[in-house]
Amino acid sequence: MELTTTFTKKGRINVLADGEYQFTVPAFIWYASSLCGETEAEPEALEALRLEGESSDAYEKALRLLGQRAHGEAELKRKLRQKYSPAAVDAAMEKLRESRLVDDAAFADALAEELYRRKAWAPERILQELLSRGIDAETAKNAVNGLDIDRKQGIIDIISKMRLPDAPTKKDVDRLLRRLLAAGYSMREIREVVEISDGTAMQDDGA
């Protein structure tokens, strides 16, 4: 197949075979490839170059995502696969692992700590969130077990953050209950901390 190239406005390389566009790769991938300077190419060599270029793009995208916030491996792979092929994503993830840029245990520990500190969630709710992020069950449980959680204090913290009025309405109480239940606390635990009756909610003096 006759091999030709053109430049894009962003400095990337369009690769053409027999005059037909095939794919675009970063310039540094092209210049480092064995095809650079050649006028002929086999389909297998073109596919290898395409995959190398796509893997490089997936890796760069992963770095941008990690720059925004930490990600678990499964979550990162899911986002990358929205745009890149499984083979390209797998190659990018392998490079990230080799560079120690993805570490599910460290990610799970940090996320579990943040969810308790910032949202005051109960352990069960934190575990649910870690699992939903693609963290495996053992790693997620270890992260939750590593927390020093005071369930009663968690309920108090949520109530404090809601800033209920001195005379809360039934609507206020319902909103409070929904938030506490969504955070993973049971009605029994909630009633041990707050008094709920006739549309009012009041923190127990014994709390």
Descriptive overview:
By secondary structure, this protein is mainly alpha-helical. The protein folds into three domains: 3-98, Arc Repressor Mutant, subunit A, CATH 1.10.10.10; 104-145; 151-203. 58% of the residues lie in helices and 12% in strands. The chain contains ten helices and five strands; from the N terminus they run E-E-E-H-H-H-H-H-H-H-H-H-H-E-E. The chain has helices spanning 27-32, 43-68, 73-80, 86-98, 104-119, 123-132, 137-145, 151-162, 170-182, 187-193, and strands at residues 3-7, 13-17, 20-25, 194-197, 200-203. The protein has a three-stranded antiparallel β-sheet with strand order 1-2-3. It has a two-stranded antiparallel ribbon with strand order 4-5. A hairpin with a 5-residue loop joins strand 1 (3-7) and strand 2 (13-17). It starts with a strand and ends with a strand. Mean pLDDT is 91; it is low at 197-201.
Shape call: elongated
Q: Figure out the total of helices.
A: 10
The topology string of helices and strands comes to EEEHHHHHHHHHHEE
Beta-strand content estimate: 5-15%
Got a strand count? 5
In whole angstroms, how far apart are the ends?
78 Å
Number of domains in the coordinates? 3
What is the fold-level CATH name, i.e. the topology of the largest domain?
Arc Repressor Mutant, subunit A
Report the helical percentage.
Answer: 55-70%
> Mind telling me the C-alpha Rg?
26 Å
CATH architecture of the largest domain: Orthogonal Bundle
User: Strand order, biggest sheet?
Assistant: 1-2-3
Q: Report the uncertain regions.
A: 197-201
Which structural class do the helices and strands define?
Answer: mainly alpha
Strand count, sense and barrel status of the largest sheet are:
3 strands, antiparallel
- Could you give me the name of the CATH homologous superfamily of the largest domain? Winged helix-like DNA-binding domain superfamily/Winged helix DNA-binding domain
